[in-house]
Design the sequence.
């Protein structure tokens, strides 16, 4: 999900750039026969899908050297507090 027109115009096989809502993204992917959706992004992207209960698996990569202190997602969103590992 993006609001950058350059990315919205970009065509990549097996991938989609969009400015739609999370539910609209899932519906579009289903219509195009995608079997899985992989979100690549930060806290805002992931939590927008989590708030609508649209995520069933999380692969978390931490890059503290690249992003400094970053943002604490565990403390900010109640959804993360209910995850099991």
Sequence:
């Amino acid at each position: 999900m993006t609001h950058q027109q350059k990315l919205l115009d970009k065509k990549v096989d097996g991938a989609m750039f969009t400015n739609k809502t999370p539910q609209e993204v899932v519906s579009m992917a289903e219509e195009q026969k995608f079997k899985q959706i992989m979100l690549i992004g930060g806290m805002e992207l992931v939590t927008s899908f989590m708030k609508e209960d649209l995520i069933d698996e999380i692969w978390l990569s931490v890059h503290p050297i690249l992003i400094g202190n970053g943002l604490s997602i565990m403390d900010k969103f109640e959804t993360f507090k209910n995850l099991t590992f």
Notes: The chain has one domain: 5-81. The two ends are 27 Å apart (CA to CA). The chain has a mean pLDDT of 79.
